[in-house]
Specification:
Four copies of one chain form a homotetramer.
Chain A (H helix, E strand, L loop, with lengths): L4 E2 L4 E6 L5 E7 L9 H11 L16 E3 L3 E2 L9 E2 L4 E6 L21 H8 L15 H14 L4 E9 L2 E2 L20 H16 L6 E8 L13 H10 L4 E6 L10 H4 L3 E3 L5 E3 L7 E2 L2 E2 L4 E7 L9 E4 L5 E4 L9 H28 L9
Antiparallel strand pairs in A: 1-2, 2-3, 3-7, 4-7, 5-6, 8-9, 8-10, 10-16, 11-16, 12-13, 14-15, 17-18
Helix pairs in contact in A: 1-3, 1-7, 3-7, 5-7
């Protein structure tokens, strides 16, 4: 058991605080002989990197990743850097800490934050930037996710912001290509344009908004998932809920499924290619009985509005006196935006883990091969 | 890693199929010296037991539990049966199997069920009653949950059905005492009366409905939860999502939090008793940064409508030919009803696990003591 | 983490006390589609069963095993019973308990036994027959080992008693065929004849002897083992040391290797068949760097003399008063004898686990396939 | 499951290769509020550091450790650096790699080394200095062990070399104070003087010697250990066997116990202080039934002679042709010497893990408190 690890066979252990010298992770169990360059990891980190638009925190962190172990190249590998099967350690140094910004919350608890609960649990907390509870930790997840994607050739994992505050996208306009064209990872160009104005106003008011993120994995073969307590959806639920500020997770129709009748919800089947059924709908989100069905795996999660806001909130001090807290520092007006690549990374890691779990128990009858 | 286990320090491993000789579980890591009688476990099982009203399956299973190990009594214990710290094995024999009911689905996949995915994964499935994928497995969870409750004196864990199909309770009428007075675990007496008619009609049509269950734990001390990947909410999400037919999990305001602004969502605090803050609201559902805050822990999960229905559905056979499936057998018109005690059991097991995890790393500064 | 489980992917959880209603295990992670009959498990249990000669305890336990879950047969399987990939629960009911034999040790600690330490740890102990600390628990290991053997076709795992008390076999007379012909699992017919007289005398004196067991696995392909902390030899060391009364474990030359020089110890190689090296010696016991080399895996472990003896020993009572303890009950004069099939079972389980671990990370390049 | 982690609640994950940029570890689960300075870790690393005498490798590595996370200090901590309960990442940069020394073994397998088995398992290996299989990895263990010692105040853990090649110390001269006065960690001053000449001769011959190390933990309270598969001795066996070149592990009398009779081996007891028994002997090495008895925990392990020797040995190339291998590079003539602080570190980590496991299941009735 490790509090700071997830996955069983593709196992990720992260470390580091927001204002410490460095953060990073160790990825253990990665198959050998997979080509892996730091630049591939960096490309994913750059999608999550702060300071790229006015809609994310202005902290300037290059998030430059360094591979400390687990890869090898020589003339036998044709100069390509390959994984060796040993643990891959990744390190990202923190550069732009402004710890003094946080001195005011040294002795007060920011409402909605983990300040009080860390202090209650451990009797000590690194208050600088939220310490270990900062969303900065998710950089390590994105780095690990970049490796997970290499374990899963043929699988496409994409995420999008489908709701900003109360404002939802129009599903009829959903376009994956649009996601990379706006600072919100929004798949609806009309919504993206509207959201810019909405979030600008919220930001100037010193307030914040929540969001809903949808992550879809296509190309997942049928058979991944390990019932009863390693169900693919259960592991996705845990993975997504572990992301900072997430308060809800859905698979497929999710909560809307509760309002359906049995006839509507049961995805009908007709004979398909290669001996597998063709599904006529995907209310199930690609998972039945905790095992992938071969359809796209669809997961959504809700992110609460950033708790760090400029509006004063009633709170208490460490010695239990009343105070008002205004969070200065540099913050995202909607942490949900940068949660999009994080959600993708978690999906990738969970699928890589389940691919290896499947291969262990059943062998190689899943449709793809890593490496 | 174990596919059929959950929890780390209060660890539950379940086994058994719907129509096999028996099902059960092994609970490992339970503290010693806790009084435990089979009757206490039986009382919880009886709440989940089928055949108690016309709104659940008519399969008649006494679900009589037998403790095979892990307890001891003699005159030194004053005749009380106490846990010894060794694994507690529980067994429930299956009595009322009617396997021939299922011969029709031997070679066809029921839409919405795990039939296809188990076959795709393992190349074999016990089709009788759904085999391992049957909700019958949840009896073992309820039995384990009864032990977990004994580890957590002072904590009250209660569940209720707050939505049946599209019909929600009126929150203003929420009354925990009402839950035990109707066959739906419904906390709203008006809704309960209406639901009886609604579900009768659905049942007679051979259809089914989904549901939303809410589970609340009161008396949880601040400090339980192990960030980053053993967060209390992440473990709850996994636990609830692992229950049959669950498609979504929320903590506190859940998906509704996405539509709030930062000022609304951040639960303000004022100085409280015993040096701990008094929270003015509980949008967070009692968990901040993955650690309990001392407020009630609030979790909701959505259950899809029962996939076993009498309405014919398009499907395929094992050899990929078109067929129509009608599920006979005996089924719950709303599996969400009996999911209420299951959700309570999962909450109890997760909290017991986190209590022991907390005690390991931090010692005994949590507010309660088992035994 | 589970105190009563071992293995990661072929995972065994045992339960039960010596004088409780039953003992057994749950085997999780077993691949599907492997033929498995209760009779195959029974055959292994019968090799370990007590009361088969005057050199083992006279307790009469049929050790009849019952498979509660995880297998399935119908006409599609040709009537053969196959594993389904779900957990396999096995139960053995206790039949011949004579708990009153142990009332004298209710309040005293038998020297060399776990009586004192269980009481010190848990504050309670099931003293009847040693409760959970009894070697009776090893029946569950042997049952699990029988399944593990089925996962590993082509591997031969055999054990032998190579030392009884101070008396060693003559290596020149080592004959595996001899092992089944005497009540000691002794591979040396001359030694076996001598040991009968020696152990008879010891038994009549109410004393006991220790032993050394050697277990050899042949047909293990190169590549099994997961460095650094899942080394094959480290897992074997843990598995063997967990057997009751074991005080030492060796791989290959073991402690004798410390006295060798580098030239002697390094097993030289010459080109072999199928592209693999041919080793000229096997000082390493088939494991290099924690990974199998393709040579026979050789493991030895030392069992201390049975602590339950008729000679009075100085001890204390639970309330810390001086007493003398004589252990009546029914006991093995040398517990090492019945440890032979237990050691084989642990070897089988460890290898099965590592076969699945290897298949997860590296794929199917190991030489054998289960099922 | 993690191949490169050990411990359950005090969990250590190591990474790094001999000639990569850095090695290190993440320690997860450490209790909060424990004072911890890098200098304390450095002091332990310096005991294991190479190049300190002519009897160890001449590679010059400062082994300077850097704490990347998990600690915090401010004026509230009185300037002391305290653990926070979050993962502690430690990094040691490699400085003195001479990778070209190893180009000769790029395509050949050194007998007795892991060269062949890594290649057979992974299809790739970092041959420079042995890559991941190098004993250089043990620096990370020693660093983790320094933290483990801080978790266990009142416990004294000491190791000594008790046998060099075939040469054993005289037990009558055993003196812990002597261990720090000679380059062998030898507790016998007469033996230490003799060993200098012996090892000089071996070194000049380009040969190597094995060794036996004894590690003793004093002050361990009764009750640590988690039967059946988390026994304290089983975990020690795994921990010690995982150290490079170890081929055998013993607890207490170990293999010698097999030659004793029951009367000799059962450590008798008499009433002791504080309600606990006083043991008249310690054949058991402080562990009964897998649980500590309160006596000193005694563990020995055998290290084979260094496989890297200057004497040519028959071997094969990667393409299965005959060759002779002479290992140049810089090597320890007896790797057992530097295994002494490594063995101590493993003992410390195992005990810290079991202390936390005990505290989880049973609470705080063990005799010491961390922090």
């Amino acid at each position: 058991m490790s509090h700071n690890s997830f996955g069983h066979l593709f196992r990720v252990t992260t470390f580091g605080e927001s204002h410490g010298p460095a953060l990073g992770c160790v990825v253990d169990g990665c198959p050998p002989l997979i080509p892996l360059e730091a630049a591939e990891i960096q490309a994913e980190l750059d999608r999550r990197r702060p300071g790229q638009s006015r809609f994310t925190t202005q902290r300037q962190e290059p998030d430059a990743v360094r591979i400390l172990s687990g890869v090898f190249s020589d003339d036998r590998t044709g100069g390509r850097q390959l994984t060796t099967g040993t643990p891959i350690a990744l390190m990202i140094e923190n550069v732009d800490q402004r710890s003094k910004d946080y001195s005011e919350i040294r002795d007060s608890y920011r409402p909605g934050h983990a300040d009080f609960t860390y202090e209650a649990k451990y009797g000590i907390r690194d208050y600088r930037g939220g310490g270990r509870s900062s969303a900065r930790e998710t950089a390590a997840r994105v780095a690990a996710g970049a490796i997970a994607r290499k374990v899963l050739p043929g699988i496409t994992i994409r995420g999008a912001l489908v709701q900003l505050g109360p404002h939802r996208i129009d599903r009829a306009r959903f376009d994956w290509d649009e996601v990379g064209r706006n600072p919100f990872f929004c798949p609806d160009p009309v919504a993206a344009a509207e959201w810019a104005g909405i979030l600008d106003a919220v930001r100037k008011q010193g307030s914040s908004l929540g969001a809903v993120i949808e992550v879809v994995a296509e190309g997942v073969p049928a058979g991944l998932g390990a019932p009863i307590y390693g169900k693919l959806d259960a592991d996705l639920a845990s993975a997504m809920m572990s992301i900072n500020a997430v308060k809800g997770v859905e698979i497929g129709d999710g909560f809307a499924a509760a309002a359906l009748r049995g006839e509507e919800n049961a995805d009908e089947m007709r004979p398909g290619n290669a001996g597998a059924p063709h599904f006529l709908a995907n209310h199930a989100g690609g998972i039945l009985g905790g095992i992938s069905s071969g359809q796209p795996v669809v997961c959504r999660f809700a992110v609460k509005p950033t708790s760090s806001i400029l509006t004063p909130r009633a709170s208490v001090t460490r010695d239990n006196r009343a105070t008002d807290v205004v969070t200065k520092g540099r913050h995202d007006p909607c942490v949900g935006i940068r949660a999009v690549p994080v959600g993708e990374a978690m999906m990738a890691c969970v699928l890589a883990d389940h691919y290896l779990r499947h291969r262990a128990q059943v062998g190689s009858n899943a449709a793809f091969q890593p490496g």
